[in-house]
Amino acid sequence: MAAKTAGAGLEERWREILSVHARTMCEIDRVLHPHGLGASDFEVLDILASASPEEGEQCRVQNLVGRVHLSQSALSRLIGRLEKEGLVQRSICVEDRRGVYVTLTAKGRDLHAEVLPLQRDTLARTLQG
Prior knowledge:
Elements: H1 2-32, H2 39-49, E1 58-60, H3 61-65, H4 72-84, E2 88-92, E3 100-104, H5 106-127
Antiparallel strand pairs: 1-3, 2-3
Helix pairs in contact: 1-5, 2-5
């Protein structure tokens, strides 16, 4: 009986986490839409904007896969769209020709700076109650 109760509590908590996540992602999508971005687009820009200087502000696509919760193919399409819009630039990794780097462009950095307060405000409203 206690195991059933504990399991029900975990299940309820899990559903609560999913609900908060869904509401937050929808709200981020809503506030960023007028700027031509969605929540996943912003996540890629945000990761690239915070890349450490020793990385040359580049990030391997493979390293983004684990940080942006998209499949590799969905992430590749998203990066392609961001590149088409002039927000990121892709380049081949010289050391490993199979690797691809993604770099934030000046336009991407400017757009990120513009929408960052909107995303952070949304997080504060949805996650802090």
